[in-house]
Amino acid sequence: MRTAELRKLGFHSRKISGLLEKGILAKVKTGVYEMGNEVVPDEAMLMKLFPTAVIYLESALFHYGYTDRIPATWQIAVDKNISKSPFRISYPPVTPFYLDGRYIDIGQTEYEMNGTMIRIYDKERTICDTLRYANKLDREVFNVAIQRYIKDKEKRLPKLMEYAKILRVTKKMKDYLGVWL
Q1: Cis (ω within 30 of 0) for the bond into 92?
Q2: Radius of gyration (C-alpha) of the chain in whole angstroms
Q3: pTM for the full model?
Q4: Is 113 helix (H, G, I), strand (E, B) or coil?
Q5: Minimal CA–CA distance to 121: which of 72, 163, 158?
Q6: Greater confidence, 5 or 160?
Q7: Euclidean distance between CA atoms 47 and 106, whole angstroms
Q8: How far is CA 64 from CA 61, 126, 127, 154, in A?
Q9: For 84-98, how does the pLDDT look when each residue is reduced to its tens digit (9 = 90+)?
Q10: Which terminus in the chain has less CB density within 10 A, N or C?
Q11: Domains in the chain: boundaries
Q12: Predicted pLDDT at 62
């Protein structure tokens, strides 16, 4: 919860300090708190801290089971015009990718976790982003992701082609996936 939300519930500075001292609340960062005895999944915390962010690239690959490697930080996509300072936090560790606002909504989907809507890119958008960052990703992560997508019975090739065109990775898609598709 944010300080403003706590104040609306009648908790002011002294009361918040008292709850922190008793361990009822735990401070996530300045102005952001969580229940001290409640385990909040990182994804839910991310959405509360960064309401416009979308789970991105390796974090999305891990969510879909396209990699077994747990990313060292949560990779999130945000609009390039947003302030950079909110992302300088120690927990949860995040790596923001600043995207052009025209591309933020493409392939965005949601699922619910503990009453919080989690925004993430769908499988096809995630594969297009993987192709875009092919040279920056670990080679094993890249190869496993592509192979698992190809074997995925729920893949949507027309949607992949549509996104590839919009995101300008059509040539890479044909080079890396064309043999198996």
Answers
A1: yes
A2: 19
A3: 0.78
A4: strand
A5: 163
A6: 160
A7: 18
A8: 5, 9, 11, 11
A9: 888 887 777 899 999
A10: C
A11: 1-39, 42-177
A12: 96
